[in-house]
Amino acid sequence: MKFFKNIKKSRSASDEIFYTQIKKMIGFTPKDLSIYKQAFTHTSLQLKDDKGHPLNFERLEYLGDAMLGSIVASYLYNEVPDANEGYLTQMRSKIVSREHLNELGKDLDLLQYLISRTSKSKIGNNIHGNLFEALVGAIYLDRGFNYCSKFINKKVLSIYVDIEKLEGKITSYKGLLIEWSQKNKRNVNFEVYEDTGNQNVKHFSVKLFVDKKVISKGRATSKKRAEEMAAKRAYYVFQSEIEMLL
Amino acid sequence: MKFFKNIKKSRSASDEIFYTQIKKMIGFTPKDLSIYKQAFTHTSLQLKDDKGHPLNFERLEYLGDAMLGSIVASYLYNEVPDANEGYLTQMRSKIVSREHLNELGKDLDLLQYLISRTSKSKIGNNIHGNLFEALVGAIYLDRGFNYCSKFINKKVLSIYVDIEKLEGKITSYKGLLIEWSQKNKRNVNFEVYEDTGNQNVKHFSVKLFVDKKVISKGRATSKKRAEEMAAKRAYYVFQSEIEMLL
After folding, report:
1. β-bridge mates for residue B217, sequence order
2. Where along the chain is the active site annotated (chains A, B) (predicted)?
3. Which of B3, B78, B211, B240 has its C-alpha lying 20 to 30 A from A75's C-alpha?
4. With 0-12 CB in 10 A as exposed, 13-18 as middle and 19+ as buried, what is B169?
């Protein structure tokens, strides 16, 4: 036992912080921290492992892209049991689109972990999505498919993905909520404040009030997105009343 | 116990045969046979389940396609540790190409299980690959990712996929083996016979002899493919000698 405790203790202070951050983000314990480090290592560092193989996030990004594709496919298969093949394919494309993956990477603020020789501001916007895919690849390698699926389902799909919205049935939860409040003489308010903390990317937090009572919250890299997130959560609270509007 | 035995016994005679065939093909026990039945149900039957959802292989094909993509990605990631993202993507495309999937479906003779209103001969060649994908989807749904991966690795990738050949390093194992035999004064012979059994698709079996001793066997839907399969297996027997030719 003491032996194992010593191994655990031997992690450096910066590794300890990284370990805690990753654990919090993925929702379970990382086993091999070096894989997650690789997921955030940029090619510009030109690192190699002890066998001479390139050590950066690109291969993990490839693996993560593939895992993401199958996990989203499985999610949609279960979530939309009456959808045909064409619909499922189309919905998956929307969820794993470059634009959407960049948003996910931004909202998880993955750029803060990137180690790079090139200046982060010069890397281009796709880095957010690439890091997201690399993180997914790292989780798969470290903990296997089921944990990887758990991460994507709990931390991504259930929060950020909205089938009704992707389908075009609901274009704005905020708009819908305001429409409902006017018809039902309720008072809806949004309180927005910058909440960047010690992160590199600007973040916004939103509190949504109905009749002066906090109903839900949202946090994202844009004000609009944070409001929509809070509005979507409030939508589920009043769903039965709101659905009468649809 | 008697209760469960009775349940087991209650499977019909045709189900019993199907169960045994599937079990042999996938290499482990199917749990929910109805999923595999769905994987071999053609749209032309226009069946629906008790919730009114279409009951045919199309949704499973979608799921299987996605699973196949991630399992092949994971296989290549491990198998070719020095390959970059571009190489891995290209190799994966070759393995999961329509043409290759059709070959896999043919070699597993999946068409024999298809239940269809349309005549099988009128369905077109892609049915082989589509059924293969649907089978993969069924295995995933029934037994989960790890069993699905086991099936693809053991029954497909290790037998039918050849990285050296896909890379273009070796274009013909038969040719290579004959070249080696001539240089080393060994006598290589192929014995080919039709071995269709009670299957719908014509099959060929091959025995490969070196100096009148059976070294390996192959079986496939074309003579050439069966010979290559046997030659590849023989290649691994004499690999160290043959590699001196490369």
Report:
1. B207
2. 65, 133
3. B78
4. exposed
Helix B223-237 vs helix B173-183: crossing angle, to nearest 10: 50
Query: Which pTM does this prediction carry?
Result: 0.79
What number of residues does chain B have?
A: 246
pLDDT tens profile B162-188 = 887 777 777 889 988 999 998 889 999
Tens digit of each residue's pLDDT (9 = 90 or more) over A183-200: 889 999 999 998 887 777
The binding site of A consists of: 61, 130, 133
Q: Is the confidence at residue B1, as pLDDT, over 50? A: no
Residues from chain A contacting residue B77 (CB–CB below 8 Å): 59, 62-63
Spatial distance between the Cα atoms of B69 and B93, rounded to a whole number of angstroms: 9
For A95-108, what is each residue's pLDDT tens digit? 999 998 998 999 89
Q: Does B51 touch chain A (CB under 8 A)?
A: yes
Question: Which of 117-136 (A) contact B at CB < 8 A?
Answer: none
Q: What are the residue ranges of helices labelled H in chain B?
A: 2-9, 13-26, 33-39, 58-79, 85-95, 98-107, 127-143, 145-151, 158-160, 163-167, 173-183, 223-237, 239-242
Q: How many helices (H) and strands (E) does chain A have?
A: 13, 3
Binding site listing of B for Mg(2+)? 61, 130, 133
Q: What is the pLDDT of residues B199-210, one digit of tens each?
A: 777 889 999 999
Q: For tokens 């006598």, name the residue.
A: B187
Confirm or reject contact between A70 and chain B (CB < 8 A). Answer: yes
Helix (H) or strand (E) holding A134: helix A127-143
Write down the residue that tokens 């099959």 correspond to. Answer: B203
Of A52, A59, A84, the CB nearest to B77: A59
CA A108, distance to chain mean position in Å, is 5
Per-residue pLDDT reduced to its tens digit, A196-228: 877 777 889 999 999 999 999 998 888 888 999
CA–chain centroid gap for B51, Å, is 33
Which residues, at least 6 apart from A190, have a Cβ–Cβ distance to it below 8 Å?
Answer: A174, A206, A207, A208, A209, A227, A230
Q: Please indicate if any CB of chain A lies within 8 Å of the CB of B67.
A: yes
